[in-house]
Design a protein that fits this description.
The complex is a heterodimer of chains A (309) and B (454). In chain A, a hairpin with a 2-residue loop joins strand 4 and strand 5. The N and C termini of chain A lie far apart (46 Å). Chain A has 309 residues and is α/β, with parallel strands linked by helices. Chain A has 5 helices and 24 strands. Chain A is globular. By secondary structure, chain B is of the alpha+beta class. Chain B contains 13 helices and 20 strands. In chain B, strands 1, 2, 7, 8, 9, 10, 17 and 18 form an 8-stranded mixed β-sheet that branches. In chain B, strand 9 and strand 10 form a beta hairpin. The longest helix of chain B is centred in the first third of the chain and has 19 residues. Chain B starts with a strand and ends in a 14-residue tail after the last helix. The mean pLDDT of chain B is 94. The chains are: A alpha/beta (309), B alpha+beta (454).
């Protein structure tokens, strides 16, 4: 039997690979970077699990899946291999400056989250006065890490979530970034509440993103969650749904929320409702959701209707 | 003092490079001085890559050079290993009120450009829906003979070919004064003096200072979407296209790598200001927004500054002793005019006494990983280590870009398209910057104080 390919060895990819192999499947796990772990490398709650899974599983690092001339290929220094399919665990994407409504000059010092993290993990400094824009668990973890190399670290967000725990050394501010200024290196941010001198801006507002829409996504490629537990649980649910035999459940989703996994099968025992914070009506019953909520899928369910209350 | 060279070219933008390439391949000794860190970092980098047909006012120097340049382009670019994508342009009417304009403009364009070998035709609403189902438009004038090219690819191929033919390049060197005598030209620069028999002032936005003229720069803002919106270049039709000899106001421009550019918009600017302001973006969105049904995701905005002359035409003229050729006001359609414009400069220099041999052909460029994959060829080693999965750029491509003369991250990006795909460099820019840092000990975005990490 062909092995199942998992693309990306962050927490989700690693955990998914383990769940699949626990169930007797042959799994291949490829990672584009030279090191497994993804953004969980700066997450104290996930780092241990990631390291354990990395030592238990065989991770093929330095291998990248690309689409070329209509084919899906794994590329590495050893050459190209064509593959038929796979499961996408390539993580979040951070929104671009244009999507965040930030205009102005195009200086050096504006980083996507992953690029900033890659440089930090290599031991480089990305700036002296660094602003992480977009407040969430990962940007707080990045800010903590930045405190080791940068003089001042700010965390900005137009709607700073009150429950987010920010260390006192990180200056958290409710603000919207409108322009960046700087002819060579970034020198200043123009905010809705004034100006801020800064030489680095890290774009830290995330969105699930699947670069291979023909393949099923898992983890941050599929859902916006910030807790390692939620990622692991979603990988378990994904596997249950993938491996059971059943008909597809009709889904209706309205509002700023999502169902995971999709397509959902009637044989899956549970599913997730993902939403930042609020009330969701699921098949007529109201639920409070903060991040995500796992609900049982009663046997014989043929339709799930979810909407924002 | 460096030299003497046959010709000293000031400016390593697309214009200066075309001239340096055409001179060097004919055996002239050429030096190019450039104030930026790399070739193409001035006017040329803010370009949308359109090879034009229509250019008003008819009969102007820029309009004539655009026509000649357009016709020469495919062969000229092919010698450099670049293949422009030929596609038509549509001047579309999106409201019933604009339909009479289509009928009014059509015979006029057909008479002028038809005679010069460009096919001009009317497109009905139904044909338009078939060809361009993603557009909201009622009818159009179709102008064949447009093309889009990757301006960076062309710029860097010109640079490499000129270097291959023996042209010498001096970056981070600013020309301060051109002095001519009976014997030749002395160029004072920030890095000392250069001497040459002839000089070409292709200094773009700063050509006016060296020529004693005064430019009126214009800023052009472009926004980029992550999908193809049309198979043609599309511009809304308007009467002002005829009345004013101004820019055509930009268009919807498909790119060969699956994106769409809107623009360039058009506003007053100063030479150093390449900022994108929200009002520029709003203007583009309101101009083109209702024309396109599915737009895709907005990736980025960028701005270029055009070295527009007050007369709004190209100015190509001799110094008093005819030792220097000044090129002032080479804005749009300069990219289209390149092959014709370079030959015109060569003729001017020959009339002043420069002798040139027959042109040699450059070696073909090394293929990028992306190109090898598209051709079904094997990639391995450093060429198989992918940094940018969207654009399929490998570590090997980055190393080759550095061999080809890239000294900055922008230089690598422009040569390889690293980070220019839908994910906008999230997975590659950090790793590529780290690679450059390890190899060079420093990494800047575009030279000067634009450091990225330390």
């Amino acid at each position: 039997m062909d092995s199942t390919l998992v693309i990306g060895a962050g927490l989700s990819g690693l955990y998914l690979a383990r769940e699949l192999s626990r169930r007797g499947l042959e799994v291949r796990l490829v990672e584009t970077r030279e090191r497994a772990g993804g953004i969980s490398l700066i997450d104290p709650e996930a780092k241990g699990i990631v390291e354990r899974l990395t030592s238990q599983l065989e991770v093929e690092t330095g291998k990248t899946v690309v689409r070329a001339a209509g084919r899906l290929l794994i590329l590495s220094s050893e050459g190209a291999e064509e593959v038929r399919g796979g499961i996408v665990a390539t993580g979040f994407r951070s929104k671009s400056a244009a999507e965040m409504g930030i205009w102005g000059d195009r200086p050096a010092g504006v980083f996507h989250f992953r690029s900033a993290l890659d440089l930090l993990l290599e031991g480089f400094k990305i700036g002296e006065r660094v602003v992480a824009y977009g407040a969430n668990r990962y940007s707080v973890l990045l800010a903590e890490r930045l405190l080791e190399s940068s003089r001042e670290v700010y965390l900005l967000d137009p709607a700073l979530p009150p429950q987010l725990e920010v260390p006192p050394e990180v200056k958290a501010m409710r603000a919207k970034v409108r322009y960046v200024k700087g002819r060579g290196r970034l020198s200043k941010l123009v905010l809705d509440v004034g100006e801020l001198e800064a030489d680095a801006l890290v774009l830290s507002s995330f969105e699930p993103w699947n670069p291979f829409p023909e393949l099923l996504p898992v983890g941050h490629a599929a859902i916006e969650v910030y807790e390692p537990r939620a990622l692991m649980e979603s990988a378990e649910i994904f596997v249950e749904n993938l491996l059971c035999e059943g008909s597809y459940v009709e889904l209706s989703v309205r509002g700023e929320l999502a169902i995971f996994p999709t397509p959902l099968k009637s044989c899956a025992r549970r599913f997730m409702v993902v939403m930042r914070e609020g009330r969701a009506i699921v098949n007529g019953s109201p639920y409070e959701v903060r991040g995500h909520l796992t609900l049982p899928l009663p046997p014989g369910t043929s339709r799930v209707e979810v909407r924002e209350a | 003092m460096r030299g003497p060279y046959d010709v000293l070219v000031v400016g390593a933008g697309a214009v200066g490079l075309s001239i340096a390439y055409e001179l060097a391949r004919r055996g002239a000794s050429v030096a190019v001085i450039e104030k930026e860190a790399e070739a193409g970092f001035g006017v040329s980098k803010g370009h949308a890559g359109v090879i034009h047909v229509l250019q008003l006012p008819l009969g102007s120097l820029k309009s004539r050079l655009a026509i000649y340049g357009n016709k020469m382009y495919d062969k000229w670019a092919a010698e450099l290993g670049v293949k422009p994508w030929r596609l038509p342009a549509l001047l579309v009417a999106s409201s019933p009120l604009q339909l009479p304009l289509v009928l009014l403009l059509y015979p006029f364009l057909r008479a002028y450009y038809g005679r010069r070998g460009f096919a001009i035709s009317l497109v009905s609403g139904r044909e338009l829906r078939e060809r361009e189902p993603n557009l909201n438009a009622l009818g159009a004038i179709r102008v064949d003979g447009y093309a889009v090219a990757d301006p960076f690819e062309l710029t860097y191929r010109l640079y490499e070919a000129a270097k291959e033919m023996g042209a010498e390049f001096y970056f981070n060197v600013e020309a301060e004064l051109l002095e001519e005598s009976e014997e030749g030209v002395k160029v004072k620069s920030s890095a000392g003096a250069f001497s040459s028999r002839y000089a070409v002032n292709a200094a773009g936005l700063y050509s006016d200072l060296l020529a004693g003229e005064r430019l009126k720069p214009k800023r052009g803002v472009m926004v980029v979407f992550d999908r193809l919106q049309a198979k043609s270049i599309v511009a809304p039709i308007s009467l002002s296209q005829l009345v004013r000899a101004e820019t055509k106001g930009g268009g919807i421009i498909p790119t060969a790598w699956g994106h769409t550019i809107w623009g360039p918009g058009f506003s007053e600017g100063d030479k150093e200001d390449t900022a994108v302001y929200p009002q520029d973006v709003m203007a583009l969105l309101s101009r083109f927004g209702s024309l396109v049904r599915r737009k895709g995701r907005l990736l980025k905005g960028y701005a270029g500054v055009r070295p527009a002359s007050p007369a709004r035409d190209f100015m190509m003229f001799y110094s008093p002793r005819k030792r220097i050729v000044h090129l002032v006001g080479i804005e749009s359609p300069g990219f289209t005019a390149l092959p014709a414009l370079a030959l015109m400069v060569l003729k001017m220099l020959q009339r002043s006494g420069l002798s040139l041999g027959a042109p040699r052909l450059p070696r073909p460029p090394k293929p990028l990983t992306r190109e090898l994959l598209a051709a079904g060829k094997e990639v391995r080693g450093e060429k198989g280590k992918i940094l940018c999965h969207c654009m399929r750029v490998s570590v090997g491509d980055v190393l080759e870009a550095m061999e080809r003369g890239a000294s900055t991250l922008d230089g690598v990006m422009f040569r390889t398209k690293l980070g220019m795909g839908p994910c906008q460099g999230q997975h590659c820019m950090g790793r590529a910057a780290a690679l450059l840092l390890k190899l060079r000990g420093e990494v800047t975005k575009s030279g000067g104080n634009s450091w990225i990490a330390r």
